[in-house]
């Protein structure tokens, strides 16, 4: 595809995906007319689209293309059989993927800084963007454009487009489109990058861990010799993936010998503090108003990349101390009668484990109740059944919902929530399976007591449990 000239009508099929909704806003900011469609819309991206005045056509329908667009962007969740896609193909309406259009329209001629990895991408990219935004107060050249897979609370948005050179991106390893099965991040051609973790994930498109590692090795291979890679040193898969990098590689982590080393880590309800060393020398005392060792490591990665690109340490310290997280990442949704309700985007057993560990440390001495909806393509499959039990054991009590759209997963591959609950009970953790959000609210709300911390873990709408549970707690409180 060549760069678009003039203002166009661009239609996005699957516009409510995080990246697609962000792209819609970016294209609108460029002066294009943007329309879009989806099967269903839910916050936070539906709120962001509404704020931008971009209507979502629901559901998918051929008539949504009656006004023929100049270009259609096909989301990666869209497959053959979608009525709009079929019309696009029948009528040969020009089409592209989100990742390809993003590169052609926004990345050419800029400095591309990409955050990749199985976990931590969204939070780390948000931290990096806020560091750059803070640095821009002192030097305008650091004012960033960015695309993040969530709403960064410091900005109230998931994207920003400016005329400056730095463009910060969350690099997704998921496939690009029905016609391009390679990872989206292979379109972003990073000048410098972060690699957080590499684990088996996305069991619907990757056959095994080796396939995942191959994707990340190809990503690393795109970084030029003049570039830099800041890579986690606590994961053997990351070590394998960066082994043949042509660029400078700076490892970060907790171990002696890490180029960016975290020491003296402490955490409480006020957040996390640590000392950061650079190549064995003191670099900074850092604080972050978020719980969790994993978040300190995410912040360290962002600090390392920014420092290497010339951002002053004072800006890094100021930014991390004022970082406000990302929507749906350890987000406190309500405090009702001493009960704290927290939402977190849960897509993988490792992410669940780190979230629950962070909450245990931050809310020490309080009962932690985990509510899990197996919704991601990984969690809906039984490949991680044992790992899921291990992760959920950190909680004091567990409630598991039915598998989201279970009929779309072959029975021999499908997660059995009752098997997970039984595994927890055998190891001493009370656990039960309840069909859906309504059933969970009805059964659980009367059992909750002042001091409890409730972690709702899902990467989707989960039947609006995030508002239903606090509302029922308010009702019971009278």
TrEMBL record:
<dbReference type="InterPro" id="IPR036565">
    <property type="entry name" value="Mur-like_cat_sf"/>
</dbReference>
<dbReference type="InterPro" id="IPR050061">
    <property type="entry name" value="MurCDEF_pg_biosynth"/>
</dbReference>
<dbReference type="InterPro" id="IPR000713">
    <property type="entry name" value="Mur_ligase_N"/>
</dbReference>
<dbReference type="GO" id="GO:0005524">
    <property type="term" value="F:ATP binding"/>
</dbReference>
<dbReference type="InterPro" id="IPR013221">
    <property type="entry name" value="Mur_ligase_cen"/>
</dbReference>
<dbReference type="GO" id="GO:0051301">
    <property type="term" value="P:cell division"/>
</dbReference>
<keyword id="KW-0732">Signal</keyword>
<keyword id="KW-0067">ATP-binding</keyword>
<feature type="domain" description="Mur ligase N-terminal catalytic">
    <location>
        <begin position="9"/>
        <end position="103"/>
    </location>
</feature>
<dbReference type="Pfam" id="PF01225">
    <property type="entry name" value="Mur_ligase"/>
</dbReference>
<keyword id="KW-0436">Ligase</keyword>
<keyword id="KW-0573">Peptidoglycan synthesis</keyword>
<dbReference type="GO" id="GO:0009252">
    <property type="term" value="P:peptidoglycan biosynthetic process"/>
</dbReference>
<keyword id="KW-0961">Cell wall biogenesis/degradation</keyword>
<dbReference type="GO" id="GO:0008360">
    <property type="term" value="P:regulation of cell shape"/>
</dbReference>
<keyword id="KW-0132">Cell division</keyword>
<keyword id="KW-0131">Cell cycle</keyword>
<dbReference type="InterPro" id="IPR036615">
    <property type="entry name" value="Mur_ligase_C_dom_sf"/>
</dbReference>
<protein>
    <submittedName>
        <fullName>UDP-N-acetylmuramate</fullName>
    </submittedName>
</protein>
<dbReference type="InterPro" id="IPR005757">
    <property type="entry name" value="Mpl"/>
</dbReference>
<feature type="domain" description="Mur ligase C-terminal">
    <location>
        <begin position="328"/>
        <end position="460"/>
    </location>
</feature>
<keyword id="KW-0547">Nucleotide-binding</keyword>
<dbReference type="InterPro" id="IPR004101">
    <property type="entry name" value="Mur_ligase_C"/>
</dbReference>
<dbReference type="Pfam" id="PF02875">
    <property type="entry name" value="Mur_ligase_C"/>
</dbReference>
<dbReference type="GO" id="GO:0016881">
    <property type="term" value="F:acid-amino acid ligase activity"/>
</dbReference>
<dbReference type="Pfam" id="PF08245">
    <property type="entry name" value="Mur_ligase_M"/>
</dbReference>
<dbReference type="GO" id="GO:0071555">
    <property type="term" value="P:cell wall organization"/>
</dbReference>
<keyword id="KW-0133">Cell shape</keyword>
<feature type="signal peptide">
    <location>
        <begin position="1"/>
        <end position="24"/>
    </location>
</feature>
<feature type="domain" description="Mur ligase central">
    <location>
        <begin position="115"/>
        <end position="306"/>
    </location>
</feature>
